[in-house]
């Protein structure tokens, strides 16, 4: 990336302060931590509230009218690099709003911290960190937790927690729809409607796919016999396990293990991979 880091730090402005206009000759990442600003980027006017990140480009003219009523605090750093192989600057977004859990916050802190004590060892770290920030910012993929599942109904979240608890036991506890509905404090019919509406599958389908995902991890990361994996993941027989596994993954458990351990990538459980349930992360 051949990054050249410029000035970096945290600035605080009293109420009503202004800055600019100035012509930029490099890139600037700026994160509004507290307060707000009206940011003028060329002809664009941006109302920058807390947790707004701005990315200015070379050749832009900037001006900031900081919050008129309270102090504004922001983090910033300037940098230059060869962007000839990147998308045209005209296609780059200027602003993003940070999610509740976001990769840019810790990276901002990391870059500014490294900038305070630059030496030969920090250069590759800075290039990696700023490169990740840029790619995440440009793609709009900055959230650490997948946002679509942060707003699941409470009943669905409670049912997912019950599935996790059951599958964490050894062997997994049997699951019935009535048990999940009781844990979610709703009727079985209503729980099924909620799962179908928000996750496009039923509660027991979800539990079954999660059990298969746990079995797939054991196939790849242990030497346990397939019969024992079927037992510890709650399947009634190796035949039942193999049948369910093949329908989901397209391979028998034996062939899946051989292929994955030989370094061939096989797409994971398609439904669980798409849903990325936070509730299954510790299983």
Uncertain stretches? 273-283
Shape: elongated
Lateral strand order in the biggest sheet? 1-8-3-6-9
What's the CATH H-level homologous superfamily of the largest domain? Regulatory protein AraC
Query: What is the β-strand count?
Result: 9
Structural class: alpha+beta
Major sheet details: 5 strands, antiparallel
Topology:
Elements: E1 4-13, E2 18-23, E3 27-34, E4 37-41, E5 44-48, E6 52-56, E7 61-66, E8 72-80, E9 95-97, H1 104-116, H2 122-139, H3 154-168, H4 177-184, H5 188-199, H6 203-221, H7 226-232, H8 238-249, H9 253-261, H10 270-275
Antiparallel strand pairs: 1-8, 2-7, 3-6, 3-8, 4-5, 4-7, 6-9
Helix pairs in contact: 1-2, 3-4, 3-6
Task: Report on the architecture of this protein.
With 283 residues, the protein is an alpha+beta fold. Helix content is 42%, strand content 20%. The protein has 10 helices and 9 strands. It is elongated. Mean pLDDT is 87; it is low at 273-283.
């Amino acid at each position: 990336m051949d990054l050249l880091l410029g000035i970096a730090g945290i600035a605080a402005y009293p109420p009503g302060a202004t800055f600019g206009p100035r012509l930029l000759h490099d890139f600037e990442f700026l994160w509004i931590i507290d307060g707000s600003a009206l940011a003028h980027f060329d002809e664009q006017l941006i109302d920058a509230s807390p947790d707004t990140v701005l990315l200015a480009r070379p050749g832009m003219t900037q001006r900031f009218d900081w919050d008129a009523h309270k102090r504004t605090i922001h983090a910033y750093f300037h940098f230059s690099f060869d962007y000839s192989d990147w998308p045209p600057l005209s296609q780059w977004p200027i602003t993003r709003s940070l999610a509740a859990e976001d990769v840019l916050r810790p990276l901002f802190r990391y870059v500014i911290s490294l900038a305070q004590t630059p030496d030969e060892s920090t250069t590759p770290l800075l290039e990696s960190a700023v490169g990740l920030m840029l790619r995440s910012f440009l793609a709009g993929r900055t959230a650490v937790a997948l946002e679509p599942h942060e707003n699941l109904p409470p009943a669905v979240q409670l049912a997912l927690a019950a599935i996790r608890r059951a599958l964490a036991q050894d062997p997994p506890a049997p699951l019935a729809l009535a048990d999940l509905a009781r844990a979610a404090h709703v009727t079985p019919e209503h729980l099924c409607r909620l799962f179908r509406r928000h996750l496009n599958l039923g509660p027991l389908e979800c539990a079954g796919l999660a059990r298969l995902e746990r079995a797939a991890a054991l196939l790849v990361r242990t030497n346990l016999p397939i019969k024992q994996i079927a037992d510890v993941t709650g399947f009634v027989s190796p035949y039942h396990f193999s049948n369910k596994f093949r329908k989901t993954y397209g391979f028998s458990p034996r062939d899946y293990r051989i292929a994955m351990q030989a370094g061939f990538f096989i797409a994971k459980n398609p439904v669980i991979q798409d849903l990325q349930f936070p509730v299954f992360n510790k299983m």
